[in-house]
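User: Show me a protein chain along with its predicted structure.
Assistant: Here is one chain, sequence first, then structure tokens.
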Amino acid sequence: MSAITIYHNPACGTSRNVLAMIRNSGEEPTVIEYLKTPPDRATLVKLLADAHLSVREVLREKGTPYTELGLDNFQWTDEQLLDVIEQHPILINRPIVVTPLGTRLCRPSETVLDILPQPQRGAFHKEDGEAVVNAKGHRV
């Protein structure tokens, strides 16, 4: 089993970029497609605690039922929000990456570089062509 886990959505460009940067460091992570295999409540609570995020900070608005469910109302408790996330895992912002160096919500995608145990092995460009890492493996 890999020392790195990514909670991934293959339809998300940011998530794909993060996965590619992990692989560019020479690691093959455990990939959990969280829409197919959502984390259980205890796992999600641990991920949030380890990443120093509140439940509200991990909520994704774009492309989700966030507005329709009225989640913009700040009267929802964390427990209520967790209940809704269990019913609608699309509400989890992504990607969340766990490594021996920490747990992060990797938005923007370059955030993953802060927690990768190994350096980048070469140049890396995001899908949109933006340079992130040069040929020597250093951030641009």
